[in-house]
Amino acid sequence: MRKKIYLILIAVACTAAAFAQSGTNSPYSQYGFGVLSDQSNGFNRGMNGLGLGSRAGNRVNFINPASYSAIDSLTFIFDVGLSGQNTNFKEGSRRINAKNADFEYATAGFRLFKNLGMSFGIVPFTNVGYNYTSSQLLNNESLVRSNQSYEGSGGIHAVYIGAGWQAFKGFSIGANISYLWGDIERRILSTYNDQNINSLSKIYNLEVASYKLDFGLQYELPISKKDKLTLGATMSLGHSLNAEPSCEIISRNPGTNISDTTKYTVGESVELPFTYGVGIMYNHNDKLDLGFDYSLQQWGATSFPTYNNGTYISRDDYFMDRHKFTFGGDYCSNKNGRSFLSRLHYRAGVSYATPYYKVGEKDGPKEISVSAGFGIPVKNLWGNRSMVNISGQWVHSSASGLITENTLRINIGVTFNERWFMKWKVR
What we know:
two-stranded antiparallel sheet, 23 strands, elongated, mainly beta
């Protein structure tokens, strides 16, 4: 069993290289820390990320570590997921499509002792990836044309380990500790068709190596013999990332190729926000789950550095609090039925989220998303049950006067549920 756990740890570690590829082409990822990743597993992606009140013995629900206490005592769970997406960008009458594929996550979970479960894994936190250009005349009377190119890449990722403990019947608490790492680079290059005007490059760099602490609790409340409610709550601590973002300004003479470089840094100017979440999940006869989640990320209390008019300083008005509302459900008519269709999980969810950053003086894009999917049980010769989770998600991001994005994303996750801890008897 220990050899298998070591193999899982190696597999999780090897997936870190896969996160080097960006999972987005959004120009909105040039703001703040980039596009915030959908931190969820395959089973709750079909419900559009719902899960603060979700607990079950056959899956890992890392968005609320209190749920680890429900992991079955005879199983070791390993969950991996990937996604592919096509995004349509619209600005005025112009439209363009972009495709991406991304390795999403790898998590594992098992029972340590009675009432105590454990999980570890690697998950994304933010994504940055864009490349576009613009061109315009300096003024109506000038023949001088200015050309700007914008390029960015990188992101922040997290490796976590956590535990969940059932303190007494119905009540569980848990915690995750994560190591955050990653780097984000953004480049802006301005050139002109006049050799007498210097080109100007702005290169922004942010390297992160810090920690993240998340806490959760769940309380199961029986309503009747066939019905119960699970209440969930989470909190993530906000703190400084101890990073020193930099801005490098390079002015180059196109005729002589002589350049002049100025570099600015702002220490202790990037932070994680305090985050709070509450959720409720209603379960009927172990067939139907219906739930609602709300989360608040207090980005408005944090700062971020920007360059403007020859200065690179930390701004307290760059971010804004982010609110997210999610409603979803899961239905399976008979998990142990003989009919294949009766064992399928049918899932759906809808979310609404406000932006966490500003674009100039405007609020960033609001986000509306809808998802639907299936959980397909897989049974092997030993009677173990694993699950293939497939879901489709449509995400609409828009703000007045800004680019509109419509993304169609396909998520595929595989949950391997193995009976590693069962004792065999020979007669």
